[in-house]
TrEMBL record, chains A, B, C, D:
<dbReference type="InterPro" id="IPR002931">
    <property type="entry name" value="Transglutaminase-like"/>
</dbReference>
<dbReference type="Pfam" id="PF01841">
    <property type="entry name" value="Transglut_core"/>
</dbReference>
<dbReference type="InterPro" id="IPR038765">
    <property type="entry name" value="Papain-like_cys_pep_sf"/>
</dbReference>
<protein>
    <submittedName>
        <fullName>Transglutaminase family protein</fullName>
    </submittedName>
</protein>
<feature type="domain" description="Transglutaminase-like">
    <location>
        <begin position="163"/>
        <end position="229"/>
    </location>
</feature>
Amino acid sequence: MGDRRVRIGCEFIYDAAIRTPTVFQVQANDAPRVTVVSEQRSIRPEVGLRGYRDLYDNPCLRVVLPAGTSTFRYQAEVLVPDATEDADTDAPEITPESLPDEVLLYTLPSRYCLPDVLADESWARFGAVPPGYRRVQKIIDHVHEHLRFSYGSSSAQSTAVDVNTSGYGVCRDFAHLAISFCRALNIPARYVFGYLPDLDVQPAAEPMDFAAWMEVWLGDRWWTFDPRNNVRRKGRVVVGRGRDASDVAMATTFGGPRLESMVVHAEEVLP
Amino acid sequence: MGDRRVRIGCEFIYDAAIRTPTVFQVQANDAPRVTVVSEQRSIRPEVGLRGYRDLYDNPCLRVVLPAGTSTFRYQAEVLVPDATEDADTDAPEITPESLPDEVLLYTLPSRYCLPDVLADESWARFGAVPPGYRRVQKIIDHVHEHLRFSYGSSSAQSTAVDVNTSGYGVCRDFAHLAISFCRALNIPARYVFGYLPDLDVQPAAEPMDFAAWMEVWLGDRWWTFDPRNNVRRKGRVVVGRGRDASDVAMATTFGGPRLESMVVHAEEVLP
Amino acid sequence: MGDRRVRIGCEFIYDAAIRTPTVFQVQANDAPRVTVVSEQRSIRPEVGLRGYRDLYDNPCLRVVLPAGTSTFRYQAEVLVPDATEDADTDAPEITPESLPDEVLLYTLPSRYCLPDVLADESWARFGAVPPGYRRVQKIIDHVHEHLRFSYGSSSAQSTAVDVNTSGYGVCRDFAHLAISFCRALNIPARYVFGYLPDLDVQPAAEPMDFAAWMEVWLGDRWWTFDPRNNVRRKGRVVVGRGRDASDVAMATTFGGPRLESMVVHAEEVLP
Amino acid sequence: MGDRRVRIGCEFIYDAAIRTPTVFQVQANDAPRVTVVSEQRSIRPEVGLRGYRDLYDNPCLRVVLPAGTSTFRYQAEVLVPDATEDADTDAPEITPESLPDEVLLYTLPSRYCLPDVLADESWARFGAVPPGYRRVQKIIDHVHEHLRFSYGSSSAQSTAVDVNTSGYGVCRDFAHLAISFCRALNIPARYVFGYLPDLDVQPAAEPMDFAAWMEVWLGDRWWTFDPRNNVRRKGRVVVGRGRDASDVAMATTFGGPRLESMVVHAEEVLP
C-alpha cells in the first residue's frame, strides 16, 4: 500500500483599520500515517509569525496583522495513505468507569454540544440500540439524514440544539449534533477539522473549504466519523481537535479586520 | 503576618440504583500562600478512589459509587495568610498581542460566558472607561448591582446572557456575567470555585456552600475578583479553575444517582 | 479479592544554620489500584508547604526550612490490593519503531544508567536470549545475583558502571544496573521508588527505608521488576518515577542542613 | 529595527544494514523574535516522517530509515532580528526559594553537568563574587579561557568533570562545564543547541556545525550565554533545550547505521 501526495493550504486576505493580533490554526497536525513533507507559511507585508500549542496540543500561529491589507498564506505537501480510513464495526463502547482520565472530558457538555439538553431524544432514539461502533454509526446516519446542508443556515452561535430544531446546518453543525447524541449516551466524542481532499471522490466536491468531522472513542482509540458526508474517505489531514468548534477556530482576530477573501485548497499532486 | 488555620471539607451522600462512575473535584488546589497541612478523603462503603489532574491541572478524584447508599467525605486542614487578598488598582490591562500563549484562551467565548453576544453591551457600558484594574472593578460593581442573588433563580443551563436578562442568579452566574463582560473587552478572565470561610466577616454568611468567583489577568498575573460578594476577603481556598462552570464541577456522575445530601464547610480552627 | 490497609509515612529532622529551601518527594502517587484514604503532611515549626508536579508528573512539596531544628512528617493511609503484583511471561518486547513517543526517552542513557557503556556486556549476556518478558527476567536474575547488597558500598555519585565493577550496591544501584542492561537492548526501563510494606513476607525485612525498583515497557504497558528482592510483592506504593535516581530524590536541600534523623515506615493496619 | 532572512538546514546520509528507527531533532523551535517562514523536511527514499514533542517540548521527527542508503534533509527560512541578543548586567540571581517550580530542575546534577562534583571549585572561584548577571559572566569568561577548543578531544561520554580536567573540548563541553559551575551556586542553567549563522562575524567561522550554548535564569527569564564564543551574536536559531546534551540529540538511531555524511548550514539570504 503506497502513499499519495497531497498539497494543502489556505490564504486569508484581511483589511485592518489598526494592528490586529490574530491566531491562525491551519497547520497540519502530526499523525502516525500522515507525513508532512514541506510547509510554508508567510505573511505580506512581512511580520513576525510565531507558533505555539494550545490546550489540546494543536499547532497555532500568532501574528499581529498590520494596519491595511495583509495576506497570510499556508501551504504544505503531505503524504497520505492510499487507503480508505479504517473502521471496526465490532469496536465496543467503553463505560465511563473504564475510560482513560484524559478522555472523560469528551463525555461532558461544551459550548455547542449539549448532551444534557438532548439527552431525552438521544436515549429515545438510540438507547435501545446495542452499544458499540454500530450504534455510533446509527447516530451518524440519523444526523446525516436529519440535517440538510445549507450555507448560511446557521451562525457562529448556533448550538447543536438550534440546528436540531431548524433542520439545517453546515458541516460543523452536523458534527456538533452527532457529538451531542453520542455524549448523551456517555460515548466520548470530539470535534475535528482539517483539509479533506477529493481523493477518488466522484464527482469532486463543491469549492473547497475546511471540513469538520468528529472522532469517537471506542475500544482503546479514537475512530473517525463524518456525519456531513457519511462515507469513509482517503486523505483527511487533521488541523485541530477539541470539544467543539469553540476550541478550534481557523482564525481568531482580536479586533474587527475585514476578511477580504479566504481560499482553502487540498488537491493531489500527480507524479 | 501570621497564618490562620482553617478546616474545610464536604460530604456527599448518594443513593444509586446501579454502580455509578463519579468524579469529585473538591480538593484544595496548591497555592503559594495556602498550605495544606492534612487531608482525608473517604468513601463508605470503602471502594477505590483515585486521583488525577484534569486539562486545567485541577486535582480530581475518580470513584465508582456502589449500588445503594454511599457517603463520600473530604476534609482538610489548611493554613491561610491572616491578610486580605491583594489588589493593585494600577495593574494595567494587557493587549492580546502581549498576552502569554496560555492566557489567550480566557479571552474567548465558552459555554456559559458569551462575550460575543454581550459585546455591544460591554462596550457601551465600559468601553469609555480607562483600561486597567479600575475598569475591571467597575464591571464587578455593575454585575454586583445588576444581579440579585437568589437560589433557584437559574439552572445548570443558564448562560451569562440568560441571567443578564433575568436579573437573578447564584454566585456562579455573577461570575459568568462579569467574565463575559471582561472578555468582550479582550481582558482575560477565568472562573474559580472553592471554599470561602467567614474569616472576620460580620455577620457570618448563610449556611455554607461552595463559592464561585473569578480571576482576571492584569499586568503579569491573575487577580481575584468576587462579583457576588464584591469585597476582598481572607482565606479563599481554590478547588478548581477553568473557562466557566462547565469546566469545574464539584461532582460529575455518569448515571442518575440521587443526591441525598451535600454539606460543605469551611471554618477557622481556633487554638 | 479484597484490599488491605497500609499506613505509610516518613519523618525527616533537619538542623539548618540558615533558612533552607527544600523539596520533598515522599507522597504516594496515584495509581489505579492504590487508594489514598487519608494524608497528613506537617512541618514543625509551622511554615508554608506547597505542592507541585515535577517534569515526570510526580507530586513534590516545596518548603523553606527555618534556621534551627525542624521536623517534617508525612503520613498516609492507603488501600492496596491483597494480591501479588501481576506478571505476564508472554509479554513481548516492542521495537523502538513501535514505541509510544513518550516511552522512547526510557531507552536512552541518563545520569546513572549507562546503556552505551554497558552495551557490549548486555549484548554478550542477553543478546541471544529470545526477546520478551522472560529476557527481562533473566536480566533481573543476573543483577540480583551479581550485586551484593551492602549499605555504604556506593555513593550518591555511583553509576551503574561503577557498581557493576565493584559488585556492591544498595537497592537504587540494583535498579540502575538492570535498567542499563535493558536499555542497551532498546527495552524501555525506568526507575521507581516508594514504600514497600512487608505484606506476607517472612521474615520481615530490615528496618524500613524507601525502596527502589524499576518498571519495564513490554506489550502496551509498564511492568514492575525488583532486582533487589527479585520477588513479586504485595502493596508497593509508588512515590516517584523517572529515568534514574537523579530524577526522583526524596529530599533535595538547597544548602547544607544537617539531617539529624530520617525514619520511613510502611506497615499494615490490622482491623 | 528590521529582520534578516536566514536559510538554515542540514542533511544526514546514512547507510543502514537493516530498517533503523531514528529520531531527528533539527527543526527550529518557535521563539517570540524568530519567524519560521518556510520549512521542508524530506527523506529519500520516501518513508513516513512524523513529528512529536519531547519531554522538554522540543520538536522531534520520527522515521524508520530503510535498509540501504537514505538521505534526510531539513531546510527552513527564518527571519531573525537584526540586533545583537540582549543582556542585562543588572539582572539578579534568584534564590531557590523564589524560583518557579519548573525552573528548579535546572539547579540539579544531570548526566554531563555535575555541580555536586564541581561544587568546591565553583565556590572557591566564584563564591565571593557578588551575585547576579556579572557573576555568571565571570563563570563564562573562566570557562572560555580554561578550555581549549579541539575537535576530537572529548567523546560522547565526557562529562563536565572530564573536560575540566583535560582542558579540551568542543562547544558542548564548554556549555556543560559552565552550566555545572552555575548550578553549583544554585543558579539555574540549561543546555541549548541550534543553528548559529555568521551574521556580521568576521572572519566567518569554521565549516558549519550545530552549535551548543546555554541559558541562565536571572530575574524572571532565561538569558543566553555562549562560553564557546563568548560574544553576543545575531541570529541564533534554537533547536532544542534540555538539562544537557543527553536530552537533546540531533539524531538518535536505534541500531548501528553508518553515518556517511552530515552537513549543517545557516547563512543569510541576501535580497
